[in-house]
Every structure is written in structure tokens, then in C-alpha cells.
Amino acid sequence: MVVKIPVCIEIGPQGSGVFVPDCPGCWVYGHTKESALKKVKIAIKQWFDWLEDHGESYPKASRKFEIEVTESMHVAYNPVKAGKPEPLFWSEVLPVKRDDIKRTIQLMKYSRQDLLDLVSHLTKEQLDFKPPGLPRSIRNCLKHIAYVEWWYVNRLNIEMPEKFPKDLFGLMNHVRGLVIGVLEKFPREKMRGVHQPVKYKSPTCDLWTARKVLRRLVDHERLHTRYIRKVLKKFKSSRVQRDKKSKSV
Fold first, then answer.
1. Count of alpha carbons within 13 angstroms of residue 62, beta-carbon side
2. How far apart are CA 139 and CA 121, in angstroms?
3. Between the ranges 82-91, 137-146, 200-209, 238-247, where is the mean pLDDT highest?
4. DSSP string, 111-164
5. pTM across the whole model
6. Domain housing 24
7. 56 and 94 both lie in a single domain
8. Number of domains, the chain
9. Contacts of 106 (CB under 8 A, 6+ apart)
């Protein structure tokens, strides 16, 4: 039996973004609608592998699937660009349950383990390397991950402390602790309905739900973990080129 997995797509003039509501952490971009949909098929397979890497098991039948575009949104901005608007899809309006929150916490644990395995032993040079053609250093990316987690929860008008440690990994641990603390005691009145943030309003799209926030908490870190892997490859390549130049002198 072939399972159909629903996907949601933003189609912009310069690119498309696709996420998978039933697979939190599956969020891909493509320069065209077709390339984004092709990438998301690969991402879903990798998502199952990711869960298995963290000790979960899935029947082989679940690997036989077709994607089904259940929501599409044509937008004027570029969904591939950092800092894009955050549109609300109908699939994200459904209320969440305690089990959804517990599942999110578990997936966040997996994604943070992956991230720390990747960055915890990096040198200062690696952390501050500014890759040509890419927008962020790894240090900047890690700060971004931490602050955005705090920002996502704030979208639901849930108050959290606004003082943060200066140490990079202290910052990440501090914010993650705050976010998990909120999730473990998630206010029932925030589990349903559409919310508009009172503080730090966005001038473009400011409609948020608990389901949207839960998905983004997993999607965002996994997306930037992939970015950091890309930066590390560029760092390694730059070192190889530098070594070749030094030997030729």
C-alpha cells in the first residue's frame, strides 16, 4: 500500500519552499516548484532515517509513499531568502494536544543532539569562518538558532525572560531550557486559536498558532544544522586551497 503524505508549498517568483506537516523537521527550498517538490521526497526519506538513527523504528511500508500537495500559496517574496515572511497555512490552524507537545520535545532533543555533535568541538576559527557566498558564520548561526526559538514562543504572547548569557553555548542551553519549560507546562488557552504577537510585531505576516510554533521549533534547527554542515565543507575546502598556495610559494 502506498501512503500519501501531504505537503504544503510556498511558490515565489525566485524560489519555492515546502514543508511536511506530518514530518516536523522536513522543510526544503528549491529554485523552482518542481525542484522543491523533488527535494522534499528525498527529505522525507531522510526524515525516516533520522528517526531510526535516534532509536525509533518504522515499518517498511511507511517508506512507500507519494507526496500530495494539499496546500499551495503563491507569494510575492522569495521563500528561499532568510528573513522571509512567516505565512499561516490551514494545516497549522488545527489545535494541538499534549501528545503533540511531547512529540515536539522529543524531536527537539534529537535535533539538538545532532547540532551539538556537529559544533561542540569546533575551534574559534571554524566558528567565526565567514563562508564566501553564504550569509552567516557558524557562531552567528548558532546565536540565530537560540534567539529564534525564544522568538517563536513569544509569537503566542507567552512571556519569557529577555536577559541572555553572552557565552555562545550558555546562550543556547539557557534559551532551550526556557522553551522546554514553557512546552512542559504549555498553557491550555494557547493550544488552539490564531494569535497575533503584541511585542516584536512583524510588518508582513503575524498570524501564529501553537501548531505552527511547534513545527518551526523542529524545522528551524534542522534547517540550520544542514547549513552548518555546508559551511564546514567550505571551511575544509578553503583550508585545502590555502595549504596548496602556501606549498607553491
1. 13
2. 13
3. 137-146
4. HHHHHHHHHTT--HHHHH---TT-S--HHHHHHHHHHHHHHHHHTTT-------
5. 0.92
6. 1-84
7. no
8. 2
9. none
